[in-house]
């Protein structure tokens, strides 16, 4: 079986990291992978050991030339199936290219944002199967009219071993510019509105007053960087909140956190939550989308309503003030990641979808 994968993400986190896990697992299972991704993307280099990589210009939803470029790639590579992994034009335009050649098309849906029913009725005709990374996303699509026979749920995966390491706190403190003896609260998310950083900033003055050793790290980059920096300064928290951007050493940083907070207003599943649990870090997050599938409330962390700074702050207060509870939740989360979110299970789930559509038997 040969599969053409299309991923428009440029950085190796979130969906692109899931694609890399999938490529590696499929290659081990004997699938021939072809990857189309943006020129200069991090995934292009990382995937060369498990896929034939083609770097293409990908300009988003209005880049109609992508249909032609992908169609030419299909003509050259002759895949049995096309798997579209991201939006930003790759979902619809990639489907047009595949349909031009009569190939079956699989779409991975990683976000839970709603779409109008009329759009679902039109757009999802393009796909033979829609694979959601959580039950939460599946329920959104079903409510909008997606035919159940097209829908499959295959949860995102986490290779937990790289995150299950000891914290070298002095080294990481120096790298992040933080005091080594502080309580460390982290947020790992793109700096975009739906990740909800503003709700944590609103809760921080009271938390800092109660926990004088508290320091907060925002890992990630995005268009809100300057705005969030101003909000932190306006709240008088410039010495307590550190915006450190994208970190390639996240697997070293996460085990040093005392608590991970994810105040998103929308979330498909939340790979950062899986990474934190793998590092034995408890989580405070919102009860939206697929997050309740990643965080077991009261067992591996605490869940609060979205957009509620008071509830968010109270949940953080409970865990910051109880080290023994944090350790229990962290250990429970780590054990759950190993049992339920392995890359092998994710690869098997996607491969089963392919076998529904392609008669080739591996």
Mean pLDDT: 94
- Binned strand content: 15-25%
Spell out the helices and strands N to C: EHEHEHEHEHEHEHEHEHEHEHEHEHHH
What oligomeric assembly is this protein in?
single chain
Largest sheet: 7 strands, parallel
Given as residue ranges, the uncertain stretches (5+ residues, pLDDT < 50) are none
User: What is the CATH superfamily of the largest domain?
Assistant: Glycogen Phosphorylase B
End-to-end distance: 7 Å
CATH architecture of the largest domain: 3-Layer(aba) Sandwich
Estimate percent helicity.
Answer: 40-55%
**Total helical segments:** 15
CATH topology of the largest domain: Rossmann fold
CATH C-level class of the largest domain: Alpha Beta
Domain tally: 2
Structural class: alpha/beta
Number of strands: 13
Radius of gyration, rounded? 21 Å
């Amino acid at each position: 079986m040969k599969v053409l994968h299309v991923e428009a993400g440029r950085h190796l986190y979130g969906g692109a990291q899931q694609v890399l896990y999938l490529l590696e697992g499929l290659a081990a299972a004997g699938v021939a992978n072809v990857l189309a991704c943006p020129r200069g993307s991090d995934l292009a280099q990382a995937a060369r050991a498990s896929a034939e990589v083609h770097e293409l210009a990908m300009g988003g939803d209005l880049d109609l030339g992508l249909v032609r470029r992908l169609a030419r790639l299909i003509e050259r590579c002759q895949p049995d199936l096309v798997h579209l992994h991201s939006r930003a034009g790759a979902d619809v335009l990639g489907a047009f290219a595949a349909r031009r050649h009569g190939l079956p098309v699989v779409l991975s849906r990683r976000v839970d944002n709603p779409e109008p029913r009329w759009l679902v009725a039109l757009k999802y005709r393009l796909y033979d199967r829609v694979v959601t990374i959580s039950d939460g996303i599946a329920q959104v699509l079903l409510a909008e009219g997606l035919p159940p026979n097209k829908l499959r749920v295959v949860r995102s995966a986490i290779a937990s071993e790289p995150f299950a390491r000891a914290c070298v706190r002095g080294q990481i403190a120096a790298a992040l510019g933080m005091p080594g003896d502080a309580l460390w609260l982290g947020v790992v998310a793109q700096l975009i509105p739906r990740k909800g950083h503003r709700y944590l900033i609103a809760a921080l003055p009271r938390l800092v007053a109660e926990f004088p050793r508290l320091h907060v790290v925002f890992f990630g980059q995005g268009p809100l960087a300057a705005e969030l920096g101003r909000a932190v300064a306006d709240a008088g928290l410039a010495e307590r909140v550190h915006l450190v951007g994208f970190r390639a050493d996240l697997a070293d940083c996460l085990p040093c956190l005392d608590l991970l907070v994810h105040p998103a207003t929308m979330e498909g599943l939340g790979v950062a939550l899986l990474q934190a649990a793998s590092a034995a870090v408890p989580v405070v997050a919102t009860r939206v989308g697929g997050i309740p599938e990643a965080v077991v409330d009261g067992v591996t962390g605490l869940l609060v309503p979205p957009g509620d700074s008071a509830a968010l702050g109270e949940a953080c207060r409970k865990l910051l003030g109880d080290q023994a509870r944090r350790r229990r939740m962290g250990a429970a989360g780590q054990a759950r990641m190993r049992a339920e979110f392995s890359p092998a299970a994710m690869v098997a789930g996607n491969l089963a979808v392919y076998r529904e559509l392609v008669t080739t038997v591996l």
